[in-house]
Structures
1.
Amino acid sequence: MTGGAEKSLRISQVGLRGVVGAALTASHALDFASAFGTFLEPSGGVIVGRDPRASGVMMREAVIAGLMACGRNVVDLGVVSTPVIQHAICRQDAAGGVSIGASHNSAEWNALKFFGREGTYLSTAEANELLDIYHLRKFDFVEWEKIGKLRQEAGAIDRYLDDIAAAFDLEAIRRFRVVVDCCNGTSSLILRRSNERFGTSFILINEKIEGVAFAHEPSTTRDAVGLQLAPLMRPLGADAGFLFDVDSDRVAVAAETGEPVSEEMVLPMLADYLLPRGPGRLIITNLSTTALVDEVAARHGGKVVRAPVGRQATIDALASYRPEQVAVAGEGTGAVMMPRFRFVYDGIASMLAVLSMMSERGQPLSQILAGYPRYSILKAQLPLATQRIPALLAELRETYRDGAANVGDGLRVDWPGRWFHVRVSQTEPVVRVICEQRGDPPRELFENLLDRVRNA
Amino acid sequence: MPKREHLLKIGVSGIRGVVGEFLTPQLACSFAQAFGTYVGVGRVVVGRDTRSSGEMLQHAVTCGLLAAGCEVVDVGILPTPTIQVYVGSTRARGGIALTASHNPPEYNALKLFNSEGLFFNSYERGELLDLYHQSSFRRATNDEMRRAVSDYATPPRLHIERVLKHVNVERIRARRFRVALDGVNGAASVMTPRFLAETLNCELHAIWVDPSQPFPREAEPLPETLGELAGLVRRTGSEAGFGHDPDGDRLAIVDETGRVLDNDDVLALAVDAALGRLPGDVVVNLTTSRSIDDIARAHGRRVFRTPVGEANVVEMMQAVNAAIGGEGSGGGIIFPAVHLCRDSYTGMAFLLDRMAETGLTVSQLAAKLPRYHRRFGKVAFEHGRLGPLMQALEESFPEAALDRTDGLKLLLDEGWIHVRASNTEPLLRLAAEARTEDEIERLYGRVLKALEE
């Protein structure tokens, strides 16, 4: 593919994702659901839920039809977050589940994510098998007598909150005044219910469930936090602010001072909170995530394992350790999972962990953040012709041969207190350039890199 | 000759097939998306009969319609005529009923209706099929996606209200008829018991009215499949018995002695009742009894005949603005004052109203009909043999007047013979009628002999 062309459909190990109508069609969804129904182990039902995008109903109908035709009993949770779906798979001992929703992408996108037993993400081997069945289009449709049944379940959010209440001391964090930008997504359903049941004080903005026009791009970045959430902190006298993507698996943070916090900070903060609690000593993250994680790990005698960028690589890395070895896993995007809460990316659980940390330390958020050395990260993306990438990476490696190179995913070069990572996006025809330095931003290195990518 | 099994048929009347390997959700979804593209952005009604594959296929169809940018109104499990009335009176863009009518339970099909709740005419059906084959569907973006809603209460109310306008409800209610019903656990299983017991105040004895259960007997309501209903009529001393097919459009009637009425007589009773109330002519297919001509003549009306098939009868009824029509052997009554579709509810209401009006029993009413004797059968043929067979038949009845609009119909003084090739199997369907049992015996014998030679 040549640079600049707009990608609107992606079928990969992570599932199916695309712009509805333009690229992602009913047939894609139906075939993928039929493949999943064929792939799953024979016993157990399948849990289905969706985010509020208008196209989600069409996608749900496809998923239900494909699964039922394969003889699967389907439980439809309606509009819920992805972690609630994973929780329900576990709770009902289902064979697996499907989350319909494009998470942090804009409204015209939609996607299918697939989960196995216990609500776990599919391993690479499983995901490849699913893809093979999809491409082969040989589905195990059953005879008329064995076609599956559909059941609607309304209480999934409450059952999820039951477990949340058992895992976190909601009593202790009730006193915090917390502003949440729901970005018209599923977090509003969960947090409104939490306020009703547990007396928490979440003040919700953009809380209306919306299918077409989100209040802003649903990405969990510092820039998005700065749009509406951060400016409200002081006027509302809030103790902390959180921003969720539409399906609530990612979170970004605003301090009580009105300062938007880098999305990179969620993982180091939670590592700092969770490492001393043990028993896990490992932080599993990717090559593009801040080096602050390494410093935090060193403070507590922990160890960082870095995988290539992308959810699938993190999941495969996670799968090679025993659960009790791991303290926390996640990315610099605000997607973090904890052994304490079932090892799924869960923005709500991440938020509650941050609030618990504030409560236990008796420190305001800004003070906790001030306890970390300053790292400055610069990120950019540039279009590039795919076929020139190997030459570019070789050239960069030659140019920066004084640093320690890692070629696990594109090229990462480390110097003491400074690193860069140049890689090809899995979702767009762009090269991503990330550069970080302890202290001030590494502007010169960053500009040099961008020039070289532009001239490649 | 190897048996040709029609496990899947995609044609001008839609999609029909054995669910699973053949009729897949993918096919249903694509066909629905073609349909949604064809009828345009707007509301489309979706309902179904009680087949176990219905719910799955309904989701596939809903998916295809939403993907085409249509709003979907789910009306759940309902008789086909009730769905059609609702489509027509709510001015939806169209409707899809998931039902394989009287086919066995492993089958299902998509029946397609236009904005008036009628079958598409033959030209429209051709266009839709081309659209499906071209796969050039409208694909709604997220902004263009419409809702999926449900309306379970309105369709039965609308349908029943219309039926009741044409009978004297009070005199039916006053009689408190004792009535038996066999719902075949089909689409009418909930609506008909309410209609008979509550609306028409009958003392109801019903079997097989559980829509969650499979069909307990062969799906087509015929004398040989309605034994349980006949027994129920006798056991309970019912004055009438009604038998449904799975989608509730056809009606079988059992008299108070437990005898299943001939389907042509069911239609004849309805035609007589309708012509007594409304002006207009009659349309029936070529295989329907001459008793209809006699009844029409008595009312001073004309009879138009069409090729076999509900869509053909309906098209002609529209053209001549008919008062009533139907297909004798198919067990279908079409009363356009309610809706231009096969409607078992009109049939039930007309019969009970007639009984209330005259004080006569079902068998007495049937006995007053013109009496003809009929014989039906089928003969397998090899491809390429159809022409010579028809030729032989025509030559052995040199005295007959010919009608070639649908296969071959031979019109004789003593009766008629109708021979046509099945649309779905290499079979010749035979029908013959005469005034006496001796005559039909002789006539049918001559037909078989001509075909054997």
Note: The domain at 158-367 of chain B is CATH 3.40.120.10 (Alpha-D-Glucose-1,6-Bisphosphate; Chain A, domain 3).
2.
Amino acid sequence: MRYPRWFWAAFGAPGYAWLAVLFLVPFYVILAVALGTVDPIFRFPVPVWNPLEWNVGAFEFIFNGLGPGEQFFVVFVRTFAYVAIALALSLAIGYPVAYYIARHGGRWKAFLLLGIVAPFWISYLMRMLAWVNLLQDDGYVNRVLMWLQVLDAPRNWLDGRASTVILGLVYGYVPFLILPLYAALDRIPRDLLEASRDLGASPAQTFRRVTLPLSKAGILAGAVIIALPMFGDYYTPDLLSGSPKTNLVGNQINLFIHGPQPTVGAALTVLLMAMLAVLMAYYLVSTARISRVDER
Amino acid sequence: MRRFVDWWRNPWGKPRFLAVFTFLYLIWSIIPILIAVRFSFNDGRSRSTGQGWSTRWYWDEPELSVKNDPSLREALFQSLELASLTMLIAVPIGVALAISLTRWRGRGSGTARFVSLFPIVTPELVMGTALFLTFVHLFQFVELGTVAQLLGHVTFSISFVVIIVRGRLLSIGPEYEEAATDLGAPPMKALRLVLLPLLLPAVVASFLIVFAISIDDFVISQFLSADSSTETIPVKIYSNARGAPTPALNALASVMLFFSLLAITLAIVLQRAVQRSRGGGKTGVEDMAEMRL
Amino acid sequence: MSGHPREARGLDRREFLRRSAAATVGLSSAGAFLAACASDEPTGAPVGTGGGGETTAAPFELARKDNPVTLPLYDDNPAIASGLEPEAGPLKIYNWIDYLDKKTVKKFDKEFGVKTEITIFNTMDEAIAKLRAGSDFDVFFPTPDRLGKLVAAKLLQPINLDYLPNVQNMWPELQSPFYDVGSRYTVPYVIYTTGIGYRTDHVTPPPEGFDNPYDIFYETNYRGRTFLLDDYREAIAMLLLRNGGTDVNTGDEAQLEQVRQDLLGLTDAVNVKVSVLDYTLVPEGRAWVHQAWSGDFVSAQYYLPKGVDYSVLGYWFPPDGKGLIGNDTMAVLRSAKNPVLAHEFLNFMMDNDNAYANFYNFVGYQPPLTSLNPDRLVADEVVPPHLDTCVVRQEDFDQGYTLLELSPEVDALWQNIWAEFKSGA
């Protein structure tokens, strides 16, 4: 590049500055609150800015609750499980759709993509409320299932079961998975696939040995885009369940922040973000090679 | 019917299973939207049982319709205002950031990339709480309300712009700019006259996505709202849904849907027109999908 | 009243006036007797330790029935002067959801030529957090169990009773209640009890058929349709009562530990859920057993689906009156930009007709008006006969247990139990 070294770095200066002030600093605030104290009357958080005065009571409280069967352990394990299952289901649903649009979309590509993206345009809450509606005892889900004779009697989907919450998560996040998957699949040059067929591979083998590996970056990207925010989701369990047995980390953070020990809520947030940061870093490092190959 | 049978039997045709699967997925995805819209035209008070058709919840109903209920109207304007402003601020910042990240090779670029992309994967609950605490304890000169909400929206929108624009940048490659500079153009001019036009579809896509995300945002808008006049549509829906809402809520969401579809259609039409004069290229819709982390 | 559920019952304006007249005219002998026997003027020595259970001294005083509290006045937080003209508004009200009748508010708007904005909060903690963070609401609806904190943090401004002659319409005990002697900061709004709401057509036997009626929550037949109120004070208090406790503001660790285990056991037994939508969930049949507020069950009849009769709604409250009872209050915030108008609003809402209209049209929660004869509510078909357990009477206040302010340490104990319960462990 002919441009001076600092040119490109400086080009992004407004962006870096914005993110530093309004993204990084708030994280420090959370840290200061997690390691801070509470005011005696209201028990509202009082952040402590000086690291030398930090008080680790909140973290102690959490570690005490991390033993098997204790409240934080149960919630973290449950959240992991739900996210993992929802991710797997989303991939199972999203990959075929992305594949179809990328490889066989043809003239309809833009139209189909619009259909995928359409759910973004109506409020997520509205869609979830529509589902609550559909899942009621006399709702369409029960009616259809009984008509298909899968069920004999209406099942109470909203009685606080994990499957409803997981399906809600899948429904809400799957569009976010399809887009990056589609992007990755679309990028695979057709000639590679033709070459594979020319060399005698069957469609299934082509898929397994050419398409799938080349789409790995897309899968990882999509997984990161949906799994990480899912860890902080709290309104899906709220709307679709309401039972403590399906509460996720997000629910507990919300409860603590607005309740007895906001320091604990902030500390939980810190732990959650540390975990997510590790996952994100792992993703970036492991795909650094792949994206360098992609860049011409 | 005959065409369908032919299609089904065509041995050279596209995979049938995948086609049907995609079709079913789209139906599953869109049905709740259709239901929500259907009940917005309900003639009764119920949001779950069909009671005829009417537009009362949009304008007729004297106190409760979207047109006549000031709190619903305010929510609509607040949502549109926030989304528009967020668009105008986040996209330029994000485009510059994307260009910087893709071209910058020096030390610290990895960290910069990490920080730029982290907002996307940060759960909104975390962002909302962090920003709330920040505006209450640290940046107290920023009061809760529209300004705070705007700052929050822009912050997480920037990352979306980055991944969309980066996708396009990585496909374009550096050759065009290099050619321009070889021919004697100074860096900024090469950028302006060569790169930006090539990026246009991605920029349009960014505008659309930021608009959609800002309009749909719930957590950050709620945490940073001051009073009912700064509540956006999703916040209104959430707080009303906890009580006993009327179909006016569905009507509100449908109005939002309408505006968004309008925006997308305009964008696509404009793009097609521009591209026809230029010749070829991807549309913004496809660019929306071409994301790169 | 187009579109209002009341329409179906064929009530028109003439009917409404006739019934409200019947209810207001003629105090029952019981009512008059009690009015005459209003509780003693409290001597109110401000310092004192409360009833058993509280631990160390709180930074503010904890009001109890036997320890009335005169809330402190501060020099830097004065009340407004008398005789001022109301401001131009808009009046900003901060309230629970569905807790004010829109028509009554409109009437206020017309009378004073102003606009009113209502902002909703979901929980008292959330509301206090927003108030602390800075806001400019005028009118607030605090519960007595937060008054000590609110006053100590100077979030409320003292009210000037010269603007509030209608406070005379309220029950004498509530005109100068033990939690706010002299009504320095609050005036009463509505009264209610907390009992068990249920579907008579699905729940047999009803709570009274159990040896310990509160055991109905553990009935596994109703698994998935059992709800507690999403309020840690109400839920824990009800379980304390189930165990035979008599102090619903206790900090006694043994009792609280028992409740903690009971709560976790409830999750295992019936996958209990939490909500505050008892007035829609029970009529819709999504809940069969729901800890509920009395006012919600009065209005629940309007959320019944077509064709379902209100006889399916049942509400149980201890017949001896030893259950949870409480009242909400109205207050003016210190940050109010329209304090005079706010006072006028409070006065307006305590007017006999307005308070009754608020209750009757929409809210369902009873106002403590001396002119409102509770016994007539059933006779006048405001409340269905089998739901007369929802009606609150003055004598209930003497027997019942009220949720009052906890010291911060005890409050933390309660909230920690709730957090653990909510984690589904």
Note: The first strand of chain A starts at residue 37 and ends at 38.
3.
Amino acid sequence: MSNRNVAVSKKRYKADRADIVIVGNGIAGLTAAVEARRLAPDASIVIITAQSHPTINTPALKQFAIGKLTQEQLLAYPAGTELAQRIHVINAYVEGINAQEKFLSLEGGKGFGYGSLLLATGSKATGLPQSVPGSNFDGVITLHCLEDYLDLRRRLPEVDDAVVIGGGAHAIETVMGLLHLGIHVHWLLRGKTCLSRILDTPASEMVLENIRHAGATVYTETEIQGIVGRVGSVIGVVTNHDQMIPCQLVATCTGTTPVTTLAEQCSIPIMQKHGILVDDQLRTSTRDNYAAGAVAALKNPQTGAHETRPLWHAGVLQGRTAAAMMTYHEELATQSFGVPWHATHLGDLCMLAVGDLHKMTDDLMTLTDSSKKSYRRMSFIGDRLVSYLSLGPTQPDSLAIKRIIDEGLSILDIQKDLLKGNFDARKYFSRQQSHAARTLITSGKLPTVHWIHSSTPVSRPVVISPTTSHKMPALPKTDGSLAIPVLRPATNVASTKLGPHTEPLHDAVPLTNERSQQPDTEEILPFTGKLPAFSEQIIDTQAVPAPTPQDSRRGLQSYSTKLPTVSGRQTTPGKRPPLRMTTGQFKVIGG
Amino acid sequence: MLKPVMLHKTGMQVAQEVQACIGCNECLLACPALAEPITIDVLNHVTLGGSIPAAVARFARSCYQCGACVSPCPVGLHRDAMMMWLKVRLLHAEE
């Protein structure tokens, strides 16, 4: 390459560069982009995706398949969000990562530079092995993405009998969807039970019975041996019991695997094991590279094992955390993601599974209850809940139960209610908040605040006054009023921190950023209607302003009843040291 | 002395629930008060913040907290609580 060409090439790389580059426009990717825009109004943000449609609610594809939703109703964010938030979307396939020079290789030989990189490449369906005879017949489909479901919808008018393969929640939801359309469904399970990673035998039996009752024919310990076709189209399947099941459709729902192809094409190896290994701040083993969503393997706080969480809620939370990290707001990314959580409908049954349901230790107590046409199993150590499984006609307050496990709250008073399915989360947490407020008033001491283990942000970036940044002074006894420490809105935090490190895209279009322009907000108790009074004895505290009529754009977090942050970790601008993985732990090296 | 207050759901809890919403639309399909097309993505984002479109405002006023939206939710979320927060936002916007 001539010197001129090199110069041209470098110039192009310089122009095609963004502070934050996100590969993948699934929910983790787009959430990260939107959140990064809120935290860093001046940063250039680019999503590179090979996907041909905007971000959709993938769990809602089942409703789309049976015609309950239109394609437009699948959108995860209102149409035009990317444009309004100045998020540049490039439709291209990323072939590799040069981690030293910090640029991506796109198809066609183009490069694209980045300041921080988020890999949100998601997962792909496992599908039928190619070795299964007839797996390439027309009518053999794998259900995973929008294209698959569009394909399914086109085929449904021609289908009277369908075979569904797989033993997980995805397969059950597919079975129920097809039954809803009046299609006779043959459900093939490899094992004796369904959802074997979550359900025990009684719970599995309950689900299987429910599916049978709904009209499906269930085949346990049955595997597909081959697919029979006629002139290229499926007409039936042959099982390992030498049974022929006539059908016009074979739907494979046998799970997913993370898409780590790009991570494998990195100039510095990115550590992987059942996904891209990340720490609680979603850092990979390579500097300035993060991973989120179904491709990221996080440490399970209960088992210590790294595992992916290909679930919607996890993708949202991880997207927010990744955004906080990439915009140098590490103080917003200090909380762990907590235990795994899965809630869904399995036919007429609501299933909730929280925590490590397979944990077996000597001090673990397990109780089960199968009253009221439902089943619950809860495991606990002492007064701390470890896992909770619920199957029944109603869904418990699922996030509240996750919170109880994540925060290690005592279940002494609610053990029976949890077991019997009578747990009233609103009453429980309301009582806790009242208790915390009373403690504060009568003792003058701040109660221990157990943050919810998610990265729910404040309505806009805040910095803590240096005088209160590390330790909150004990509150003196007052006449029943609360004092709230000052939370000072950051003045363009992003531009000051990202300034020397970044350079905006040349074609960035300045558009209104509605969220970032929200008025300054503080925290109040909306249902009391009264605001706490100010105690002048407390240094650097002040009364919280009452909501004004002009606050029509007040964000939700402004109404939160949580106590304000009383300590903050100083964010160090500039580059972060790389991480090295040793025996399952990340260690900071260099720096 | 502060009186104990029975909160419907705290702001943080509602924000978490919005984040956990999978967009299946079951809550809106079950709603007897919904009289015009509103998509779940818009409703979720307006619940969290930003200006409230007229159609969403009408819907929020129409909601009478019957709770029909709760049981259809596959993931056990409480749209009624989210609507309550939207009502509060609307009240402040109208003041």
Note: Chain B has a mean pLDDT of 86.
